[in-house]
Amino acid sequence: MKFLKKLFLAILSIFIILIAVLYITDTDYLIKAVRTIYLKGHTTAYLEDYKHFDNAFVGNGNSQPWPNHSDYNKVKETEALNNINKTNGTVAYVIIKNDSIWFENYYDGFGESSQTNSFSMAKSYVSALLGKAIMDGYIKNLDQPVCEFIPEYCDGKAAKMTVGDLSSMASGTNWDERYYSPLSITTRAYFDDDLTKVVTGLKVVKEPGTAYKYASGDTQMLAIAIERATGKKLYNYLEESFWKPLGSENETLWQVDSEDHDLVKAYCCIASNAKDFARLGKLYKDHGKWNGKQLLDSAFIAKSITPRFAESPEYGYGWWLKSVGDKNFFMMRGHLGQYVIVEPEDNVIIVRLGHSKGDGDAIATFTDDISTYIEEAYKMLE
What we know:
The protein is of the alpha+beta class. The chain has helices spanning 2-24, 29-36, 79-88, 122-135, 163-167, 185-191, 195-200, 216-230, 234-243, 274-285, 298-304, 368-381; strands at 55-58, 90-97, 100-106, 116-117, 252-255, 270-272, 289-290, 293-294, 320-324, 327-334, 338-343, 348-354. Strands 3-2-12-11-10-9 form a six-stranded antiparallel β-sheet, with helices on both faces. Helix 4 (122-135) packs parallel to helix 8 and helix 4 (122-135) packs across helix 9 (234-243). The N and C termini lie far apart (74 Å).
């Protein structure tokens, strides 16, 4: 009995020391990581993890349901699509043709209104909100210095960094995009309760505006700039600028770092569903118009879906760009294979949400699954 008591006290002492070390070394965010992710059997963020974080509410207004196409669900998934859906854990697959639902199906107990994490698809929303802030006169243009909103970036190379650099992933900071390392800044940002502190601690190590480097910290910094420019919380600005005007059918949630600091995780973490996510793709397809009203400047959209750097043709301003065969797509893209894929010439939008993107850990490039989701959709449409 004495041995068990000593063993218990020893384990307790080690635990207390470990917790103290985490706080002393400013890595106490790992406590939250262990509690919300690792102890639940995951090695990274997952579709429904938003339930374990603080969230801001984003309301919807007068909903505008997508109409069903005259050929709605007349064609079933191809064999290849069924296989990849099963292998990668697809939860939603939707094809929208001519602004009508041509095909939709949901899997693994999820439905058309089920909320799942957008992950980095949120970056496209933040870029759109930058365009809206410019259109509304809060921000002058893409060339306005970040320094005018975040004074920590007024010295040296940092003074040259613009809001456009943040939207196009060209800040030149030392952000390290690693999802599976518990000690990376990406992991810290996901669990830390003060994102402003995390982001303003970044160093500008390369000339801003000269090259693309995928960095979630750029989008987070852009969110801070937009909030300070507009004087509005980003989740409120999303609600009034897009979520309500686009006729979203469901309310949504956007994760925040904490109740105290109330800053959205701008690089990720909008909890919504396939058909509401698709609305931003339609807005961009239609050059910023929705029901005849210009919600976003068409010139800004055209620039957003065009590569900024010739050597990095896969990225514009908050949107991914990819050619498959003779077709050119722009898309929103998330960590575990969250996609809103748009082909404007064919008036086609493909949405896929799921647990995994399959083999490979491509961050700044494309994984093979994307081509499969596109190719099988077009086979179905034939």
